TrEMBL record:
This protein's encoding gene: atpB
Ranges for domain ATPase F1/V1/A1 complex alpha/beta subunit nucleotide-binding: 131-350
Organism from which the protein derives: Proteiniclasticum aestuarii
CDD domains named among the record's database cross-references: ATP-synt_V_A-type_beta_C, ATP-synt_V_A-type_beta_N, V_A-ATPase_B
Residue ranges annotated for the ATPase F1/V1/A1 complex alpha/beta subunit N-terminal domain, each copy included: 9-68
Family membership noted in the UniProt record: Belongs to the ATPase alpha/beta chains family.
Annotated protein name in UniProt: V-type ATP synthase beta chain
InterPro entries: ATP-synt_VA_C, ATPase_F1/V1/A1_a/bsu_N, ATPase_F1/V1/A1_a/bsu_nucl-bd, P-loop_NTPase, V-ATPase_su_B/beta
Record-linked SUPFAM superfamilies: P-loop containing nucleoside triphosphate hydrolases
GO BP annotations listed: proton motive force-driven plasma membrane ATP synthesis; vacuolar acidification
Keywords: ATP synthesis, Hydrogen ion transport, Ion transport, Transport
Amino acid sequence: MSLQYLGLSEINGPLVILDNVENVGFEEMVEISMDDGTNKMGRVVQIEGKRVVVQVFEGTNRLSLKNTKTKFIGKPMEIPLSKEVLGRIFNGSGKPIDGLGKVFADKTADINGLPLNPVSRVYPRNYINTGISSIDALTTLIRGQKLPIFSGSGMPHNELAVQIVKQAKISEGDGKNFAVVFAAMGVKNDVADYFKRSLEEAGVMENVVMFINLSDDPIIERTIAPRCALTVAEYLAYEHDMHILVILTDMTSYCEALREFSSSKGEIPGRKGYPGYLYSDLSSLYERAGIIEGAKGSVTQIPILTMPNDDITHPIPDLTGYITEGQIVLDRELHQMGVYPPVGILPSLSRLMKDGIGDGYTRIDHSSVANQLFACYAKVQDARSLASVIGEEELSDVDKQYIEFGKLFEAEFLAQGMESNRDVIETLELGWDLLSILPKPELDRIDSEILEKYHNRERAFKRFDLTERTIIKELATDGE
């Protein structure tokens, strides 16, 4: 027998409070009926003895303390699941908004997921090819990894997200068992339209599931959207043996909704006003990536967040960096130079990269090329710093060669445009051509056998049209 509770004790923003309520559970769904026959849904977000706080999905407009009947459903929020979700577009609470009707469900699942036994996790190996050289070569995305993108206001993270969705594929071939789950939180209408239009024009929508939460939608949808997306990803990965890439943008909007929600509950704030449980809340999302023993599928995550004031020590990027396995940082200076994608190489890393590249995965020289490109680009920054003090004309011949290398690296390797889709081998060849303009003694991170096999100065000069540059004269006198 289900009980209905007449009236409310208190209304506070998106929250309603009921007293003398028994036998309810945290996250339990609630149906609120009004006198005019309309219903609103909510969920239990706080229980203090017999006092229950309910967050209302559609907001508390037109609710009063006396015109409502509240019924507790007895189960948490669930989302209908079937393979038909591929190619569909949903709002933040998992309701279809593409005009194609409801999903005929094979099952329903709790959006909060089920806890995974850490012992059952399989160490992530093998890579996902994004077609973007700076990611594939230097911060390789490994299947089952969680690798966030740290961006900033006005940076092209939306364009990068769309490019990754369009180009991402697994290494085994045509990717029939590969799909993308894309969740956008707190985006404006024009950005939402850009996401939809770009993916439809690219012809990849049949392998994408989209969740769109607009900036004027209720904040509760913003906190639910990533959980709906991850529930769909887990279903496709573990019950249909698919490899799923989940892209969550923008996690800053999610955290700000969480802060607003926490404030309305009267909770004591932590750093910069965010709730003290922000770390554990983000963990409940990020830790739903991985590979489970016995399962053929995998869930890989790319959360995208905008750092307020480009501050990487802000609580959101700070806590995200603790939980995840590396980060890809977008650089504002490169963006202002017109480089796309403006991936800042030196602060970016992928902690699982070493176990998913090399012989049997990409190519035997991948690790060596990545290490050497990192080292050389670090020396470029040193040479530029020195040049800003003493002038470029006073630099040594080797430092001038590094300056030239840096210009080519940014113009040819980092900058590739939105329509360029490079496979890993093409990226590695480009890396070798860049390294080959430097003298061999400078390439001290590469085994001599690999260096002899792939170093080709003549091809590098031809590719970058270096015949008329002064670097030729400098390289000709480097003693080789």
